[in-house]
Amino acid sequence: MATAEPAFAPDLKAEADALFARKRLVNFGVPAAILAYFVYVFFAFDIIGLAERARMDNAAILVSDAYSYKTHVTHDNRNGGLTFAVEGENKGTYPEGMVPDFVTMAGENRAEIALPRGHEAVIDGSTLVFTVPDYGDVTVTVDGRDIVLDVPGGTTPDWISASGARVDIRTDGGRAIVTRARTEVYRYAFGWELFWFTLDSPFYGRSLPELVSLAVSGPRLVEGKSNVAAMAHDFWNNAMWRHKDVMWAIFETILMAFLGTMGAALVALPLAFVAARNFNRLGSVRFAVRRVFDFVRGVDGLIWTIILSRAFGPGPMTGALAILITDTGSFGKMFSEALENVDDKQIEGVQSTGAKPMQRYRFGVIPQVTPIFLSQILYYLESNTRSATVIGAITGGGIGLLLTQAIITQKDWEEVSYYIVLIVLMVMFMDWLSGVLRRRLIAGGGTH
Amino acid sequence: MADLSLGTVQDTADIRANYMAMARTKRMYGGIMLVVFVALMVSGFMLADSRNAGGFWDGILNIFQFPGEVLAEASEKAALIPALMVRFLPSLIETLNIAAASTLLGAMAAILLSLLSTRGLARFPRLIGVFRRFMDILRAIPEIVIALVLIFILGGGPVPAMIAIALHTAGALGKLFSEVNENASLKPVEGLASVGASWSQRMWLGVIPQVAPNYLSYALLRFEINIRASAILGFVGSGGIGYDLKNAFSWGQGRYDEVAAIFLLLFLTIVFFDQLSSHYRNKLVGRV
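^ inputs. structure came back:
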């Protein structure tokens, strides 16, 4: 460059002007283009219509349900009788003779329910008296085919929706619904009820110190079993939260990712040698194998999952195979690129000692590519844990299936949030594990 | 080096024995690892096989049955396929729009997050850890989780998928971007600081121009990944070509020509963007 002729000043100026003009265009053009695209998307996705369709009440239910639970107190208006059930579910029903601590029983069909913020509800047969502080008593009576609502002022406030067949009272202290069939009072409380033990377990409702002392010593609550074993059994078989099934599902998801990733690596490894220029002189074979890689990658995990779920049915095997097939393409491509970049000097060095071809591969090539391969495999193992969740949702296996099932019911949001927490922990665990293995297996760290 | 002259035959034999012992332990560890790995694979395979609805060995024989049915029906109605592909084009464009909009939104969030979590550039150095953990969490939540929850609130359509993918993209790209930022030269930043530039001016004029090609290269790769993700999210009820595929697929026989058309459309799109993004990435990284 030292001999380059000095450019004439007007040339330089013209060049600089052109450069500035281009930069100015890019600086304003790119943001303008992005903005224009967002405007297009705004209308293409019908954001205005979406704002109308959005169900913010659903969002409120979701959020409140995720961290709280409700206990239903139900009076059967046809046959009489009171039942208490967590979330109104069969599995959460209080057994005969057991009453939640916020309920005072006064007679066969009379229950006084203490609600938060000074609210109170009294169910007496088919009559409900709902007391709201600073307002008064709302009385709802089911009388044959009619439901009679009686409010203090005479005008129904907007937090009560009433018709001939149904009265719905919503306050910040609780909720009550009266129909001809039943009178129900919901009491909301913070937390995930029955997470540890269900109501039929002798350990239900005990505090942590109590449980610890029971575990260490103390009388056996279940015949023929130590307290620790009984606790573990009751927790593991919790019918409400199904810890056993959930843990199996998490395990299945990890299994899918593991089998799929490792299987793909095993299949891709020999194929990568065939596809690498410096290990295979046959151009046509190389070309064919590369197109196979491109094809399985291009078909995409979604389509493979659909095809495989037809052949294998729902379950972890289908997911593992879908991951295996898709990633064979990715690994094959990456491995063959890594193989093409190996340093020939090491191979020559090994060859100069009289090594046979197999030994040349073993001592000349493998040590060079192992760190690269391992780090790619481990990276994929982590990302496939996430894919396995998604594939599980499509084909029906693992935690993905449980999650979609819980979301479809549209009421078990506490379970949904439990699964989400578990999924995030699972992915973070796999991220951590793959990081640890990468550092351990790839000696000295910074080889890659 | 002085020992060399004193070295005796005994010494070399010792060294040799030591070396062989070391090689033996290394080989033994390798062997144990291999055995453990094979055992894990085999037991994992058997377990997955037993927990699957259909067994592996039954399934492997039927693996071509479904593609065969689809191909048979598609070849019967081969003349209709191009028309069907045109019919599904709007859904495909919706899928691509979901991917593009979420990549753009995610990348913009990622730029901000990555600048806030890079040592030396961060606006609030004390909060670097907070932003990093935040990105970890964004990355760890699979898109489908957010999409399904948002579908419940917002109803079906492209927006839940867009938000879900954008959040994940912000986390994934944020990490890659902050690795790029760490290699950026601080001199332009210091120069700008010395003339009194604010933090956003320092970042916009001092850092972004240095790292833009790498950002763009990662964002292109992400765009390609997001096309696949948006097709999958469509399948669970969030609009786009995946939703059409699910409908055609659950209809079963009689609509397999539609399934074939969508498969083909999706395949061509993915291959096209795969080639496009790898072409431009090579160009961008070559320029750096």
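Chain B touches chain A through 59 residues (CB under 8 Å). Residues 3-59 of chain B form one domain.
thumbs up if we can close this ticket
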